[in-house]
Amino acid sequence: MKFRRNKKQIPSFRKLIKTSKVKLENKLKNKQFKQQSTLKKYRKEQRKLRQAVKDAVSKKPIPLENPKEKRPGKRIEREEEEEEEALPLDMMDEDDLQLMKDLGQRASFLTRDLSSSEPVHAKKRKHKRIIDKYEKIPRTLQTVPEKELIHLLPIKDKSGIIPQTREKPVTDSNKDEEDQEEERELEEEIIEDPIQELTIEEHLIERKKKLQEKKMHIAALASAILSDPESNIKKLKELRSMLMEQDPDVAVTVRKLVIVSLMELFKDITPSYKIRPLTEAEKSTKTRKETQKLREFEEGLVSQYKFYLENLEQMVKDWKQRKLKKSNVVSLKAYKGLAEVAVKSLCELLVALPHFNFHNNIIVLIVPLMNDMSKSISEMCCEAVKKLFKQDKLGQASLGVIKVISGFVKGRNYEVRPEMLKTFLCLRIKEVEVKKDTEDINKPKKFMTFKEKRKSLSRMQRKWKKAEEKLERELREAEASESTEKKLKLHTETLNIVFVTYFRILKKAQRSPLLPAVLEGLAKFAHLINVEFFDDLLVVLHTLIESGDLSYKESLHCVQTAFHILSGQGDVLNIDPMKFYTHLYKTLFKLHAGATNEGVEIVLQCLDVMLTKRRKQVSQQRALAFIKRLCTLALHVLPNSSIGILATTRILMHTFPKTDLLLDSESQGSGVFLPELDEPEYCNAQNTALWELHALRRHYHPIVQRFAVHLIAGAPSEGSGALKPELSRRSAAELFEAYSTAEMTFNPPVESSNPKIKGKVLQGDSFLNEDLNHLIKRYSSEVATESPLDFTKYLKTSLH
């Protein structure tokens, strides 16, 4: 068996910091108790010594015949008087004191020499008589109580087994009055002076002073690290230790400042590559000083970065668990503020250092916080993930995040925030191409063989051609064709995980609040879905629409997804999407006409895919019905929506030229127009006219007026009725965004009323009637006479 050596480890800096006040108080009490016990032992020894001297000084010895006979009362009184007259210990010589100690320990009845006793009247020196008197005094045997022994484990030696025992400590229950008084004195000394209480103003001033000192210390450490990171990498540890600030006045603020400072430092000093651990062979080989210094810097940076991330994780866990620590430095209310700063730093590092070590660990921390109950933290994490998706060109970091999100959504049984899945819309997967197509487009260039060069080129030309081919090879390596293949592979894997997540929700959680985000994502990435899934997916979308459980916006996303599928690789499929046309035609009048007119943008995109891009599969009756319903809808929505709808109508009139019969009120066909019918093929739209355009011509928005006049004229591309290039060249969706009133501004701005031209202003008589002029002159020429005012007469008449 191997026994573990009990080596006393030196406490680390972290353990010293974590030592609580309770432990320090216990240590102080133990130290004081030890001091008291040693003092008591010393006093007991002194008391025993005094008692022995008093016994030796007694003058009249007890006769040997009756050693146990009681002394008379008078003799006891005399002995007490003599004891009082005896000299204290501090006034005796050292020799006498030593002699008395020996006598007190060794004198007994058994060891006394009786033959050496001489008569009392013998003339001797004074000190010899005293010694003889000592010897003649009878001694009583001290009955020493037997000490209890504690048997310990024996020790095995070469000679054999050696038993081990230890005396059991005996505690004296009786305490003398002197000990009690001394204990009281010691307790009075231990009591500390009460701390002087500060006023609120003094406390705030003191806190401000402490905070300023801490800020200066943080700034000094950070500037030293930035100036020379390789030499001052050890100062990162000193700065990180301030995350455990124990002063309750400034602990929360200092910790927040240190978190942000370390985050900015790591963003600045971190290299643009991932640091891997050294192998044993690399560690054993000798290197130059510069290389060794760089290795130490990288090793220190990785370790401090790891500890920093662990500290941030612990702060978030403390806030989640809401457990107060023993140190009681940070209150429960302050946990949320610290956690928000920690999460913000993690989000910054997620976006800024996707290439560096522990990036996957940060992803694992951030993804669950995207579904947090706190709205601020959830939005912060979702925005960070969106930013990462948008700037990730290769796709490695995006793939890691998508894997964790997919597993998290599945583990929570699809009960997560819809914002988590909406982040998928920011993925940069537009560049995904089929591998064969890329090979066809970028065919490798063939270089001439030596025989071909010799036949067709001269010696100088061959030399130039060789140099040119070498340069082309180097340029091809610089283009990194391998990275393109890697990028394609990563994007394919990412898209597969996204579609698996979407299809799981469509299959298992059709009434989940995640459905709008899923349909929106499918509408964006539908052109990249494999053809094998098209039939099943269209059936699922149609079932969702027919169920009636979807809102108008969700149903529009279903329609948009279906037509994105059919407009891409779905052209080869023989599918009739008439039911989707009918549903869109029915949904147009359900759009929100107020400020939340987001559905109009989806409708404009659907119309572009369904009618414009599929013009060959659309009948004239269907086009006429959609144009009529769109013009009716334009009367009820906001100006930007009206502009977008009229722009779409203009495009449809250009795409289907025969629809101009709607501008002629005299043309008639078979049947009567049925506006309430939801079937665009059978509503007889050819028997109506676009009378709505004449109402829109008097619209308060100038751009709506311009579009209405343009459409009434037949949407000409030239002439007086044509639109300006800034309106005609922009798509319907762009016009919808450009003239949006979301920011509470009117576009174009309302012109200020022009002031009237100032002419000759006529004054005086020209504005008045002649009779009025004479009356004014007459009253103004009369002299005002002062007469006493008597109101009582009018009052009396009114009373009567």
Please explain how this structure is put together.
It is a single chain. The protein has 800 residues and is mostly helical. Among the domains are: 200-277 and 284-356, no CATH class; 568-737, no CATH class. Helices cover 58% and strands 2% of the residues. It contains 33 helices and 2 strands. The protein has helices at 13-18, 21-57, 73-85, 94-106, 126-136, 177-190, 200-227, 235-241, 251-269, 280-284, 289-321, 332-352, 359-369, 375-391, 396-411, 418-422, 435-441, 450-456, 459-478, 481-508, 515-525, 534-547, 552-567, 578-587, 598-612, 620-634, 639-655, 692-696, 702-712, 725-728, 732-738, 770-781, 792-799; strands spanning 149-156, 161-167. The protein has a two-stranded antiparallel ribbon. Helix 15 (396-411) runs parallel beside helix 20 (481-508) and helix 23 runs antiparallel to helix 24. The longest helix is centred in the first third of the chain and has 37 residues, at 21-57. The protein is elongated. It starts with 12 loop residues before the first helix and ends with a helix. Residues 64-74, 78-87, 107-126, 435-444 and 757-762 have low confidence and may be disordered. It holds the Pfam family NOC3p. One of its GO terms (cellular component) is nucleolus. One of its GO terms (molecular function) is chromatin binding. Residues 79-93, 175-187 have a biased composition (Acidic residues). Residues 454-488 form a coiled coil.
Main attributes of the structure:
elongated, 2% strand, two-stranded antiparallel ribbon, mainly alpha, 800 residues
Shape: elongated
Residues in β-strands, percent: under 5%
Number of helices: 33
What's the gyration radius in Å?
52 Å
Fraction of helical residues: 55-70%
